[in-house]
Specification:
Blueprint lengths: L1 E4 L3 E2 L3 H13 L2 E6 L8 E5 L5 E5 L9 E5 L4 E6 L2 E7 L6 H13 L5 E3 L2 E5 L4 H8 L8 E7 L28 E3 L6 E3 L9
Length: about 200
């Protein structure tokens, strides 16, 4: 096991980006995929996608995607976060403000993370799906569509960028090229199309 005493920096840092790009081009860039719950751990034992075993002592309050754990002549190892399943609510433009406020209140009572993009709400699945549906179902507008979808974990991670913040929306592409089923609370229907489905 290789010991890592602190984070080198982030792959987006100007002084590191060229070196990371060079390792990527050379095929020597390795990734460590973490659960979002591991972000704030001070010590981690992880394995990269190339099998490198690392014992990491974290020297910052929380890890960010792109944090560089190892940077040497023969390899670079960076942090990524595992995708998360989310309960998605597509609210109609005609939704009554009072119902939206009540929905937000119910989500807040459960201390669930949330990301909002225009009329679409994403809630990471951290409880049994039936619990999520039972808690929120009575407060969803009749025209709302709901489904489950695997999304980038950064959608729910606080960052300095407004693109990814807790409880706020950012600019994300949420087109779907694959078929998926929208399971509405109380009903279900499927969309099968070879074209992308874009939600406003």
């Amino acid at each position: 096991m290789k010991r890592v005493n602190g984070i080198v920096g982030n792959a987006t840092d100007p002084e590191l980006s060229d070196a990371i790009a060079a390792h990527d081009a050379a095929g020597t860039l390795e990734t460590v995929s973490l659960k979002s719950s591991d972000r704030k751990k001070s010590r981690l034992r992880v394995e990269s996608d190339a099998g490198t075993d690392l014992g990491v002592l974290v020297d910052k309050p929380a890890l960010s995607e792109g944090d560089v754990l190892v940077l040497s002549d023969d390899r670079a190892v960076v942090v990524a976060f595992e995708s998360r399943e989310a309960f998605v609510i597509d609210l109609p433009e005609s939704a009554v403000p009072a119902s939206v406020v009540e929905l937000g209140h119910r989500i807040g009572n459960q201390h669930w993370d949330i990301a909002v993009e225009t009329h679409t709400v994403y809630i990471p699945v951290e409880a049994d799906k039936t619990i999520i549906e039972d808690v929120l179902g009575p407060y969803l507008p009749a025209e709302a569509e709901t489904w489950y979808e695997v999304v980038d974990a950064n959608r729910f991670i606080d960052q300095t960028s407004a693109d990814h913040s807790h409880g706020h929306g950012g600019n994300h592409d949420h087109s779907h090229s694959a078929d998926h089923t929208h399971d509405e609370v109380g009903t279900s229907h499927s969309h099968e199309s070879t074209a992308d489905r874009n939600h406003e």
